[in-house]
Design goal:
Layout (H helix, E strand, L loop, with lengths): L1 H21 L25 E6 L7 E4 L5 E4 L2 E5 L5 H12 L8 E7 L8 E5 L5 E3 L7 H7 L12 E5 L5 E5 L1 H5 L15 E4 L5
Parallel strand pairs: 6-10
Antiparallel strand pairs: 1-2, 1-5, 3-4, 6-7, 8-9, 8-10
């Protein structure tokens, strides 16, 4: 009897160890809805801006946002663009041009998107192509997994988690294996700007 009891204790300890290693259920499940209705895209280094100055085609051009987060345009040597919306940048350009141009009217169109690091979605671990992605409104974890090429053969998809920077780095569990391998759409959840998706390797 003592040997049998010891065997059951050992089996229970091993089961607990496997559960701890897998991380499955270690965090609360991620909420299905997360997107904010008042979200506005914020420009980051690497974005391309199409600057249109009404009735002044010689001042209109397409420029990249430099690694330092600034842009240069005709008559404006340097202007901070990173961390601002396209409307805010347009008002800044108008203010700078108003010293040389009468009543400038400026429109900014973002034509390529990278976004600031603080708002990118990062995927690390056992994804086919771990990378950082620009956040898009209503982006889901399924959209993210399609972009990174799915899971590797060694991934423990149901032990994956999301670290949510906008909530003080709170962690949520996500069931990637159920979503991708079994087509369980109930496992699909929305992402938020700055989320980090962590996909661990399976131990067994």
């Amino acid at each position: 009897m003592a040997k049998r009891a010891l065997r059951w204790v050992a089996l229970g300890s091993m089961t607990a160890l496997v559960a701890a290693c897998s991380g499955y259920g270690a965090y609360p499940p991620a909420p299905m809805a997360a997107a904010s209705t008042d979200y506005n895209y914020v420009v980051g280094a690497g974005d391309t801006l199409n600057i249109i100055v009404w009735r002044n085609p010689e001042l209109s051009l397409s420029v990249p946002v430099r690694p330092d987060g600034k842009v240069s345009t005709p008559l404006v040597d340097e202007l901070v663009a990173q961390g601002k919306t396209s409307v805010e940048i347009a008002r800044d350009v108008e203010k700078a041009l108003s010293k040389l141009v009468r009543d400038p009217v400026v429109t900014i169109i973002v034509t390529s998107f990278v976004g600031p690091y603080s708002e990118q979605i990062r995927v690390v671990g056992e994804a086919a192509r771990p990378q950082a992605l620009p956040y898009k409104q209503k982006m889901t974890v399924l959209d993210v997994m399609i972009a990174v090429g799915g899971l590797t053969d060694f991934a423990d998809g149901n032990a994956a988690s999301i670290t949510r920077a906008s909530e003080g780095d709170k962690r949520y569990s996500v069931r990637l294996k159920d979503l991708i391998k079994r087509g369980d759409i109930s496992a699909n959840v929305e992402m938020k700007p700055g989320d980090v998706l962590i996909i661990p390797q399976g131990w067994f």
